[in-house]
Amino acid sequence: MLRTLDHLGKAAYTLGTLHCLSARLLPLVQRISRMDYWKMLPLALCAGLCAAGCVTSSMLTETPMSPTCREVPTIEECQAEAGFIEDPCLKNCVLKQCSGAKVVCNEHVQQKCQFLNQQKGSKIGGYVERKEQDCLIPKDEIGWCQIPMSRQCRTKAMVHELAHSCGWKHGEGHGIPGNNGRLQCI
């Protein structure tokens, strides 16, 4: 594997600023960025990927909230956005949920996302099954719809859903993005 990575690194470095690698290399970059393989990568690959603009320094230090779901923020982005929440109990709950909630994006979740999108007439970032959760005993699972959106928007959508997992409801305010139930960026 290391020999292959070394060849890819030389190729990536050679490609430099042409395009963000080829379509065949992008899935490898995405897989590697979700795993802790950075310590094993040869210097040529890291230099090549950075030169091509496919890897940023934040990708080396930030942790995605899910290794399998697409369009998720990092734990660090989620916690930074949660820092704006005004209610102390809700804020603490969402901060913990950024690294502790299970983000689910399986086929069942995607089907429910499609149903909810049709029902609302607009796209949603995710959903939380309503139970009796509150900021002391949150719901531990988030259904994530994986819709393409900017990093900032996906972070706001995740914090919005995590707030629901902590018992927050639309209209309660507290600095939660999309207080009225809609994020302007989706």
Any overview of this molecule?
It is globular and about 35 Å long. Helix 6 packs across helix 8 (151-165). The protein starts with a helix and ends in a 21-residue tail after the last helix. It has helices spanning 2-15, 26-34, 43-51, 57-61, 75-82, 88-100, 107-120, 151-165, and strands at residues 102-104, 126-127, 141-144. It has a 3-stranded mixed sheet. It is mainly alpha-helical and 186 residues long.
Any chance you could write out the topology, listing elements then pairs?
Blueprint: H1 2-15, H2 26-34, H3 43-51, H4 57-61, H5 75-82, H6 88-100, E1 102-104, H7 107-120, E2 126-127, E3 141-144, H8 151-165
Parallel strand pairs: 1-3
Antiparallel strand pairs: 2-3
Helix pairs in contact: 1-3, 5-6, 5-8, 6-8
Any key phrases for this structure?
186 residues, mainly alpha, 2 domains, 3-stranded mixed beta sheet, 3 strands, globular
